[in-house]
Please model this.
Amino acid sequence: MADVSAMSLAIEGGWPAVEDVRFEHMWDAKEVCHQDIRLDILTEPAFQTMAGLGGAFSEIGYQALAALPQGRQDEIMQQLFGRDGARFTFCRVPVGANDFATDAYSLNDTVGDYEMKHFNLDRDRKSLVPFIQAALRINPELKLHASPWSPPGWLKVNGQMTGGGKLIEEPRVYAAYAKYLRMFVQAYAAEGIAITRLVLQNEPECGKGYPTCTMPPEQMNKLAVEYLAPELKAAGLTTEIWAGTHTRLGGLYPFHALRDDAFAAVISGLGFQYELPEKMVDLVRVRPGLRMMHTESHCHMGLNRPVEAAALYEDVWDFITAGCDNFTYWNMILNETGQSGWGWRQNSLVVVDRAAGNFQYGPDLDVMKLLSRAIPAGSRRLPTHCLHLRRVTAFQAPDGKITAVLYNTANAKKATFCIDNRPPVEVQIPGQSLVAVEL
Model:
């Protein structure tokens, strides 16, 4: 008996009757809208093994959460990390300030301290550390990936964390920054927080007015190969080094970086956000076996509408079918303004009204909850074929259960699932819905 979980994707104005105009020459719109569907699934061969789904921890997010009574804080955290909630398993942590810190800061703002004697987690212990620790109490299996938005400003040519600026091209600067990143991993471990993956630089082509760093491929490669990899190894750390986070604005940046065999040898994979899936697929053609991860979802403008929830699923599908072993939603929790520390609004899974002491869940949470529960960590993505629906995929969990995810923007219809040579399973699929079917 199939177990069907579904969420409505009904949107004001309705969905188009035909899901892909490329099909129009094959049959008319009425036939597409009413056609029953067949989904074929193979359990071998399989694609990537999933690390899981999750979201990003931030300073502003924790401050919003902490403004609520303890009981409501617990309710939100259970919805994000609990067995009856989204069950998030793989989340993002900033190294120092990101754009959802209240202002720019690093973990060592002492100018000229190349030995990192003044490195400290004092500020993180007020926000990020308790936020993550609360999540770990609910799900001790939670894994984390981390990335800096900027090195300490005094290590950069512009002397500040904001406004871009490259690392100063001096050996002592590279060595100090590698030590800084190593100490971050160790300091968080001392708080009971293990960093599984360390991504070298958030959006290395970006030089905007919030914490950023423009890090060309030559600098990223040098940092990883000559300094960070030896630094982590000497400390006996197993945290993986990942390149990125790459975006479409970086053009062929990852191709340039991967031409260096020494760099390819020390990184465990590449992190992507706002990237073109076709470029990611081409990278795997260049480097067969290349591992890829997703690091940040589209942030939109803080409107938290159903139409953006539908777009969120399309985003998840694009990155996972391109080969990423995870998907990371951006801000899990924001306050009623939805604003960053630099004044722009973005979407979130939870919106906290600090003055009222209350909160509401956004429609994006429904998408993330359905998908995270359908794709537990350790699941294998399986080959699928469905003629009448696009953005369909299927996964086999570590316990052997198979879950298919379907995106039905038309009317309700009957779906027949054919797994290998097993007897077919028939399920009624709701109209205008995102559906997970456990087979």
Observations:
- Residues 171-190 form the longest helix (20 residues).
- DSSP finds eleven helices and 20 strands in the chain.
- The mean pLDDT is 93.
